[in-house]
Design brief:
By secondary structure, the chain is α+β, with helices and mostly antiparallel strands. The chain contains 5 helices and 6 strands; from the N terminus they run E-E-E-E-E-H-H-E-H-H-H. The longest helix is centred in the middle third of the chain and has 18 residues.
C-alpha cells in the first residue's frame, strides 16, 4: 500500500476492524513520514455476464435485479429486508454455479422463484411481463399453477 502523503510503498497496519457493512477497515502508518491513514477493503465478487435474448452480453447488474423485484413488489406488503435477502440469495446462487456467462432466461427464472416465495401477486405481475402474456388464459394458467402448488 502506497502512502497517500509521500508515496512510499512501505506502510504498516496498526489496527484492523470489520465494519457493519462487511468491509475491512485498516488503520495504517507510513514507515517513512509517519502519517496515518485509513483504507477499506471489500470483496470483489465474480458474478457472471448475462447473455440477452438478442445475443448481447452485459455485466450482471444488482441495481437492475433489485429494480425488477421492486417493480413487481410495488405496493405489496413485503419488508425490504426480505427483498435484500432475495437479492443476496440470487447472487449467491449465481456464484455457486461458477459460470462465466448465464442466459438472461435463467436469471429471470431465478427472480420468478424468489417472487413466488415473497408474494404471489408480485410473481404473477413479473411473469406476465417476463413471459409476455397475450391473453387472460395465460394469467389463468399461472394462477392455477400457483393454487396447485400451494
Amino acid at each position: 500500500m502506497y502512502c497517500p502523503f509521500c508515496n512510499t510503498p512501505d506502510t504498516r497496519v496498526i489496527d484492523t476492524r470489520l465494519t457493519s457493512d462487511g468491509k475491512v477497515r485498516r488503520r495504517r502508518e507510513c514507515v517513512r513520514c509517519k502519517e496515518r491513514f485509513t483504507t477499506y477493503e471489500t470483496v470483489e465478487l465474480n458474478l457472471p455476464r448475462v447473455v440477452k435474448r438478442d445475443g448481447r452480453r452485459e455485466m450482471f447488474d444488482e441495481t437492475k435485479l433489485r429494480g425488477g423485484l421492486m417493480r413487481a413488489l410495488e405496493k405489496r406488503p413485503v419488508e425490504s429486508e426480505r427483498i435484500d435477502a432475495s437479492v443476496q440469495h440470487i447472487k449467491q446462487a449465481l456464484m455457486r454455479r461458477g459460470e462465466r456467462e448465464i442466459p438472461s432466461r435463467l436469471l429471470g427464472e431465478m427472480v420468478m422463484e424468489e417472487l413466488k416465495r415473497l408474494d404471489r401477486v408480485a410473481y404473477v405481475r413479473f411473469a406476465s411481463v417476463y413471459r409476455s402474456f397475450e391473453d387472460v388464459s395465460e394469467f389463468r394458467a399461472v394462477i392455477e399453477g400457483l393454487e396447485k402448488g400451494a
